[in-house]
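Re-running the complex after MR caught last week's input typo. The corrected sequence lines follow. Everything else is unchanged.
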Amino acid sequence: MALPVSPLAPASYPELPEVRGVRFATAEAGIKYRNRTDVLLTAMDEGTTVAGVLTTSKCPSAAVDWCRQHLAAGTARGLLVNSGNANAFTGSKGVASVALSAQFAADALGVKPEEIQLASTGVIGEPLDANKFAEVTGEMAGRLAPGPWLDAARAIMTTDTFPKVATATVAFDGEDVVISGIAKGSGMIAPDMATMLSFVFTDAPIAAPVLQALLTPAIGKSFNAVTVDSDTSTSDTCLVFATGKANVAPIESVDDPRAATFAAALGDVLHELALLIVRDGEGATKLVTVEVEGAESDHSAFRIAQSIANSPLVKTAIAGEDANWGRVVMAVGKAGEPADRDRLRISFGDIQVATAGERDPSYDEQAVSSYMKNDEITISVGIGLGNGSATVYTCDLTHGYISINGDYRS
Amino acid sequence: MALPVSPLAPASYPELPEVRGVRFATAEAGIKYRNRTDVLLTAMDEGTTVAGVLTTSKCPSAAVDWCRQHLAAGTARGLLVNSGNANAFTGSKGVASVALSAQFAADALGVKPEEIQLASTGVIGEPLDANKFAEVTGEMAGRLAPGPWLDAARAIMTTDTFPKVATATVAFDGEDVVISGIAKGSGMIAPDMATMLSFVFTDAPIAAPVLQALLTPAIGKSFNAVTVDSDTSTSDTCLVFATGKANVAPIESVDDPRAATFAAALGDVLHELALLIVRDGEGATKLVTVEVEGAESDHSAFRIAQSIANSPLVKTAIAGEDANWGRVVMAVGKAGEPADRDRLRISFGDIQVATAGERDPSYDEQAVSSYMKNDEITISVGIGLGNGSATVYTCDLTHGYISINGDYRS
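Corrected-run output:
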């Protein structure tokens, strides 16, 4: 029943170094899948700070509610994640289930339940039996190890066709600080959501408010800048844990010059994970970068880029290797943002196809058709009104998406 | 190259009575299609008033710009519509083309160019050669007739698989007043846009400001309440012409009690045309009604209903005959409108599947699966916060949509 691996999967995975202060184990709890791991238990040493960004959905999962409540403390000692069941729209059963899940993880790790962060991904509306965790967490706690990270990434997959990892290393005071992350995206079989989960771990010593201040803007350029199908999950979760075990002085202010260096490296890791999610978008055969510049503001540029990246007519055209820039015009026009038809400029790759409100005089169908055969397509749009710019990443819309999501749920 | 007729096409078409003061003809101008009509020329008697609603796109077609400019006068004597080319994003060529098109139609009908309304639908970005009209308008003017309406509806089709007509008759002062309309929706071959055009004709005598005042709210419950794929066209146009040839006293105020009667009949015609467009949505196999009640306002209910109706995950589930209410929860959650997960109620048809934030205790998968096999599906959602309600109509998202829109443009 496994899907074929996405044609956009990376050719190889990076070696992920150990993150001091982080150990984990995976197990088969049999929540939904058979013959694969579906639980990840991660232990973080004392002193670990945490920051997070959670779904804006008005119908969040029980696990998201739990995280939101316990992120405020800024510290964490454990992370329990399962695939196969999202524990979303499960009412009071969901509330009881997350409390019990945190208790089992806390008991196994010898910490308090409120020090446990939780995430669940899979079917919506099915109660999640927390007792499944009781059967495995104690045993998992006995074999925690600092790797291999690909195992952690595999345990949280749903209809993902490949595991998603990224890493960066920065030197502070002659000491290497590691930032490693895992993520999961969209998938199949009993597909219910394109649910995004990402967990990043670093041994840098960073105060929780600083970590949060660095994380939030980075999300805007990474996970919030990708779209597979415009459907926002009930369970989207990105958590960053900082163990502080690297032998460097603590970063306690965003004004510490190292904060900017760390933020850049964290941004790179998040950006790479976000692109891996698009590369594994359901049914994807092309990675599409939508660049908008010249809008009235960055926010306006972002909304226009989203309108293009979410347009089913643009996405099906790309699947058909059709440089259908008329549909790009349509998507700019419907975005609801300031735009002047007669100033628009549109390029596919380096080939300008439209300028000043009409087809480019040098338009060469042959050249642009040939460009559209690439695996990676860049659409760039100049609005001609100001200095606002934004980039959004998406994939094409193919028969694969319909097949994956039109199959019967049970 | 013709698409198979939509399985949701009506079994038969109503007889459309003559609308006094309206005559028309269709012709093959060879704009893009071969062996079919692609031009409609309509003549309206002196004294005809006009009202219209046009696309909100920031990149409207040249014809839309023309209509917007000339609707202000409130009168019209002719309508020229072509299929095969949208005359959108054609720059100064487009401006020249609409002026010339209006001139040819005006010359043929013996009226002024500013008394001609224009609409074009088809490929975006291709210059439209107005001389094509010069070759046919004179000849068409010689054979104007009050019917048959199906011919008019056929001439404006692009990838529509059936012509769309609707009619209503109301009696004022013992005299029948006719309201007849045609529309076109989405289509194929070199598909560029799901472009919506609709033209309604009545012999009622109605002052232009009254006609506009009655039309605008009716659009909200008809054309603006349907969505095939969330992509707003550069060319959406709905025009209503009132010839005043019915032998009744003029309606010169919205406070005239007959205005409400007329508005209701006009609303019925527009609603029926809008539903015909959904029934011919690209690749559609099911007509879906999304009813939302209990929202904080009607506007909020409408935005939630749109979020559900535009969700590709909801639409693919319906194509797969899967009562995947978890995806409905997701779509409510992402709408950005006030909602409380723990008050949500969701039904498919008469079957309540979720209540108070979780699966209905009496949930019966068998019953709901059987319901999902119907051609027409109603999803109703109770938000539980207020009295706002709205209904939006859509179709499912199938392999047909991908095939129609992923084919190469040229």
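None of the earlier attempt is carried over here. Chain B has two domains: 22-279, 287-406. Chain B touches chain A through 75 residues (CB under 8 Å).
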